[in-house]
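User: Design a sequence. Structure:
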């Protein structure tokens, strides 16, 4: 089976995607799958990568990464084509190992749907909702899941009426608060604000990455994460805990310094484990997710109250990332996890293709 692995992308998490895709490419069961690496540059150009090692060692997909290719958005024939007309392999299934914008947000998923290609993970809607922290929290609230208080505002309002914006936020959210671009991940553009001055700066920082901004009440909490796998009958791993090596779990703490620790399993009571797992599956269902997701929680340090922080529909996927490590600790090794995800992708595609698209 030809497995297309999408890597890179027009996203602040481009480099993270390269690390994840390297692990998938190396670990995938070569007896079952023939992996084909397709790189997307930071500019959004697609390439068939002839020398995966060069991309992995450089850490990004450059404009000289390989043969320029594209996917034609129609389900007949071979949707994967080279721009110069040369022959490229057909793809049976795609694993979009893309994090963040233009990859984890439903855009690439829409292209695959149009082209009729089965793909790993969430569909268009769950991907889009999972990326948008404002919409995500609305659905979580609707499903009765506990989330921390927030307000949202547009970049335009925050720029053109800064005084008003600051007052509006302060009226609803006490300090410290967390200011985030609505659509992103890996903590890019996120800052903590302890004062009006910091809030002012944090709004500018978040506005660099999105035209929608969310401001949340900060909670002093432990960070617990849970891996979910499945389509209609999602299963949940044992929970893990992140101990950030810095002030909070920012980009540096996630990828640059070695001081952050993962605790697997997370030291929680049986009752807390049960609650976290139940909430993880409910969060997965709340956004109609498929394939995989990592659901992240805050467990407050004082009272142990549990909040759902977010759902990640394409979580970090290196061999040392939390998502696969939690499955490994739950009895499912990395290579088998990839096979399971591909089976789930095919199952979902089969299910979708049963829908009639004509009416007579
Ligand atoms: N409301 C909050 N209270 C306390 N810490 C927070 C809050 N929101 C975010 N953080 C910190 O910032 C990190 C990144 O925020 P998160 O919303 O998970 O964004 P991302 O999607 O980029 O991972 C969290 O892991 C946590 O350390
Ligand atoms: Mg997070």
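Assistant: Done.
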């Amino acid at each position: 089976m030809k497995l297309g692995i999408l890597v890179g992308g027009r996203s602040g998490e481009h480099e993270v995607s390269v690390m994840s895709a390297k692990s998938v490419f190396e670990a995938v069961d070569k007896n079952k799958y023939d992996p084909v690496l397709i790189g997307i540059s930071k500019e959004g150009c697609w390439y068939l990568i002839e020398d995966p090692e060069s991309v992995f060692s450089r850490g990004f997909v450059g404009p000289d990464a390989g043969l320029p290719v594209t996917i034609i958005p129609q389900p007949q024939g071979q949707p994967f084509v080279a721009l110069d007309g040369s022959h490229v392999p057909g793809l049976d299934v795609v694993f979009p190992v893309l994090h963040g914008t233009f990859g984890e947000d439903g855009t690439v998923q829409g292209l695959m749907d149009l082209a009729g290609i089965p793909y790993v993970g969430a569909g268009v809607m769950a991907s889009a909702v999972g990326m948008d922290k404002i919409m995500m929290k609305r659905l979580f609230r609707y499903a009765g899941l506990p989330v921390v208080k927030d307000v949202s505002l547009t970049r335009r309002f925050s720029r053109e009426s800064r005084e008003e914006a600051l007052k509006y936020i302060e009226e609803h959210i006490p300090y410290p608060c967390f200011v985030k671009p609505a659509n992103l991940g890996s903590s890019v553009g996120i800052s903590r604000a302890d004062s009006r001055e910091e809030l002012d700066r944090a709004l500018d920082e978040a506005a660099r990455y999105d035209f929608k901004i969310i401001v949340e009440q900060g909670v002093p909490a432990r960070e617990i994460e849970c891996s979910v796998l499945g389509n209609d009958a999602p299963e949940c791993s044992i929970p893990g805990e992140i101990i950030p090596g810095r002030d909070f779990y920012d980009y540096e703490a996630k990828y640059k310094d070695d001081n952050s620790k993962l605790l697997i399993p997370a030291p929680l009571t049986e009752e807390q484990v049960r609650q976290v797992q139940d909430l993880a599956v409910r969060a997965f269902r709340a956004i109609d997710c498929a394939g995989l997701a990592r659901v992240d929680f805050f467990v407050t340090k004082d009272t142990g109250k549990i909040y759902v922080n977010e759902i990640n529909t394409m979580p970090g996927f290196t061999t040392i990332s939390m998502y696969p490590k939690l499955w490994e600790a739950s009895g499912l090794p990395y290579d088998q996890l990839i096979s399971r995800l591909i089976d789930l992708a095919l199952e979902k595609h089969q299910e979708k293709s049963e829908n009639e698209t004509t009416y007579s």
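The pocket of magnesium ion (ligand 2) is lined by residues 296, 310 (CB under 6 Å). The longest strand covers residues 221-230.
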